[in-house]
């Protein structure tokens, strides 16, 4: 079995990993980290809770430590996009954790927070920007951030980006990036629009899949409770008062529904907090911190938080309402059973949701609550896309092509980065990007 020391990561990063108590990489880390260290594009298919954040953060930090370049003003060397504020904040926290013994500047760019501090944070240039698409587009439109020197680009939870309607924004952001970059696209599922996006933005990627698409991890015990719609709140109170229930995430379909469930639980004497899109960033952070510290044992959330809650010790997930999109079920229950631990997922199903239940069971290939049951599963994944190779590039430790080292967009030698020059026709070996730019490679 591989250890993190076998992956060639820099000593300060290994020290941080060891301090977190990790010695052996997860399957996706063991596959993704070497590919990124070699400078390849990666298309990763992995469920939530498999350790994929560290899979791209660790080689990214290695690359930053080995580089001697400084990011340009208002720019960054690496860009990470996430669909929700919670997930972006989680990724940013992971970067800080794993870079504690090295120098690495980051900026968190998300909605629901004042834009002024974000603009100030990136004004001098930072190594990594972690952003949600909407707020990043706002800063781009205002001329407060530039992306033409990004050398490594990570698109995390791409399928949720699709569900939330971010694809037009994603393509505009990609168009502002240099063509000559390293790109990582990570997704729990691979619907056709995401496959098409991967074919457009990745070049000769290494496709890595650590488990069947949309299959819940085996450590989670899945249960179903058939109840009347009017009896769901009392059923939920009964579940939460169970002796084995310690820390629970409850999912509703709507923001108003989350608030109502939270109010009902508090009236029943159960400490709870709600988190959804109508809450300010400060309110959402306070609710998450209260849940993490055990001040409240129940967090009521909408699907916007399904992939942004990475908290140890969640023993139960309760689907107060079944999701309209069956894939969301997988991400919801993935809040428990993390890091190899067991967990319990309980779904409350009324007669109007039986069709949604059948869709979920068809997706996961089994009857919920019946370990021996089965249902047909559809898997439309095709072979990975193949693009035109572009040779060795900078980013994530990839070695730059000597022929293009220290050249700007006019192919003139330069000592350090500065303002981008107007785009010039590309050399025959390189293909111009969507914006006509070529980008730079690290030394």
UniProtKB/TrEMBL annotation:
Gene Ontology cellular component annotations, sorted alphabetically: cytosol
Motif Q motif mapped to chain: 2-30
Region Disordered: start-end pairs: 367-443
Ranges for domain DEAD-box RNA helicase Q: 2-30
Assigned keywords, A-Z: ATP-binding, Helicase, Hydrolase, Nucleotide-binding
Signal peptide from the UniProt entry: none
Domain Helicase ATP-binding: 33-208
SUPFAM superfamilies, sorted: P-loop containing nucleoside triphosphate hydrolases (SSF52540)
Gene Ontology MF annotations: ATP binding; hydrolase activity; nucleic acid binding; RNA helicase activity
Family according to the record: Belongs to the DEAD box helicase family.
Protein name: DEAD/DEAH box helicase
Species the sequence originates in: Hwanghaeella grinnelliae
